[in-house]
User: Which sequence fits this backbone?
């Protein structure tokens, strides 16, 4: 019998000639419309792609501007667009500004027509009244670019009050640690050692009698006591023996320095007893100020200072600590807790301004909620912030009385820059500096040049030390 389509075709053949003409004309019309629709749809997408490739554009602050705006200033951004094609191009620019609560404050659109090779710079000025964190989103040629900024940050204040027994709590914690013999043990590690330095594995007892470990790098050629850098790690990141400044832009240290790279509990080679994924680590036992994980972690850091203070080859007046992210927050707190620390570098610090941190960091906020659901504890949110009042770097930094260098990336979506600015403002010591990278994200200033600049800055703060860099 054949297929249905063939039967339909044969049936139509035996119709009258005039009817066939009408049917054919109708089919032709339908076919023509379908072809026209298909052609226009695909041609449109081809032109869209061509248009997108015809533009080069960027969203920026004014040249040399740090991206921070003082009270009374308009938030000002610039969109620079270049037409790289050989044709006149037309496209719309859409701009939206929202605040910390994701509420839209400003919205605008502008039609942009550019001749071949033409470039235009369009200013975006937004007047805001409330101090805080803002993000501008520009959309052009189906591409999105965003920049975050802070307005009137100098007027903002911390969101949690320091508890009345804050100092007593930490004094009691330090006293309990002193009652635990450290039992320092060093084991030479030939596989990590070089002609410039020896590397040792350090094992020591810390809070709760737990063994924690670190890598101790000691220069082979020493003229008197040497300076020492204590390195503290980011959340979930293991630390390995430090390399030389010339080869490692993130953690490199000059060959004549000693370096202690500490792996706090639950990290690196100190995770044999506590194994927590990073997203559970920072919320572990958060409902109790006595058992919160960072109480033990901070005592791990103090124990590291106990070690360097016990070494006769190290200069007790040249003890520096450094850290990034979690390590940055730990470095700030350790410097405030322990007067044996003589300088501090803190990059993009975590453990700072907790309430705003959870409001802005959606991933950490989700991890906290999931942890609290498992605990099934009444008034859990209230208990969380009661605990965190004892672990906020903002409550420690007013006690810092040594040179301190900080850095932030203004586009950091992990540890938001407002926290570091608040901490910096509360440090009373005059020899302090903060470096702002307006377009950097979480790894602010992570380059060889800025690493070397850190040591140059430290040399200026320690003029009595001729061999810093």
Assistant:
């Amino acid at each position: 019998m054949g297929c249905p389509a063939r039967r339909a075709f044969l049936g139509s053949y035996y119709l009258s000639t005039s009817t066939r003409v009408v049917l054919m004309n109708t089919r032709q019309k339908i076919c023509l419309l379908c072809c026209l629709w298909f052609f226009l749809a695909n041609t449109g997408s081809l032109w869209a792609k061509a248009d997108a490739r015809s533009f080069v554009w960027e969203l920026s602050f004014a040249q040399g501007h740090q991206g921070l705006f003082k009270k009374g200033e308009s938030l000002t951004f610039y969109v620079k667009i270049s037409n790289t094609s050989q044709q006149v191009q037309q496209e719309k620019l859409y701009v939206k500004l929202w605040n910390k609560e994701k509420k839209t404050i400003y919205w605008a659109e502008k039609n942009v027509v550019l001749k071949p090779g033409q470039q235009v710079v369009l200013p975006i000025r937004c007047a805001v009244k409330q101090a805080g964190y803002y993000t501008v989103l520009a959309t052009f040629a189906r591409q999105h670019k965003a920049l975050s900024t802070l307005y009137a940050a100098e007027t903002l204040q911390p969101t949690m009050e320091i508890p009345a027994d804050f100092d007593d709590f930490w004094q009691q914690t330090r006293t309990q640690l002193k009652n635990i013999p450290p039992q320092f043990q060093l084991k030479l590690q030939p596989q990590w050692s070089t002609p410039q330095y020896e590397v040792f594995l350090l094992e020591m007892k810390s809070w709760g009698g737990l063994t924690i470990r670190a890598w101790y790098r000691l220069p082979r050629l020493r003229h008197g006591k040497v300076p020492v850098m204590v390195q503290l790690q980011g959340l979930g990141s293991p630390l390995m023996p430090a390399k030389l400044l010339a080869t490692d832009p993130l953690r490199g240290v000059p060959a004549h320095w000693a370096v202690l790279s500490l792996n706090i509990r639950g990290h690196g080679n100190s995770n044999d007893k506590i194994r927590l994924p990073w997203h559970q680590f920072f919320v572990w036992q958060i409902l109790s100020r006595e058992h919160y994980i960072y109480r033990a972690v901070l005592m791990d850091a103090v124990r590291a200072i106990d070690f360097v203070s016990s070494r006769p080859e190290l200069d007790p007046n040249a003890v520096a600590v450094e850290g990034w992210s979690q390590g940055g927050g730990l470095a700030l707190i350790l410097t405030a807790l322990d007067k044996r620390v003589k300088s501090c570098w803190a990059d993009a610090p975590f453990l700072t301004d907790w309430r705003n941190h959870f409001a802005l960091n959606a991933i950490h906020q989700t991890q906290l909620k999931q942890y609290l659901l498992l605990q099934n504890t009444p008034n859990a949110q209230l208990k969380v912030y009661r605990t965190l009042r004892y672990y906020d770097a903002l409550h420690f930094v007013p006690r810092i009385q040594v040179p301190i260098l900080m850095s932030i990336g203004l586009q950091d979506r992990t540890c938001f820059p407002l926290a570091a600015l608040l901490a910096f403002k509360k440090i009373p010591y005059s020899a302090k500096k903060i470096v702002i990278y307006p377009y950097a994200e979480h790894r602010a200033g992570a380059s060889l040049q800025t690493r070397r600049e850190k040591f140059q800055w430290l040399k200026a703060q320690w003029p009595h030390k001729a061999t810093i860099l």
Summary: The radius of gyration is 31 Å. Residues 1-24, 39-50 have pLDDT under 50 and may be disordered. The CA atoms of residues 26 and 446 lie 69 Å apart.
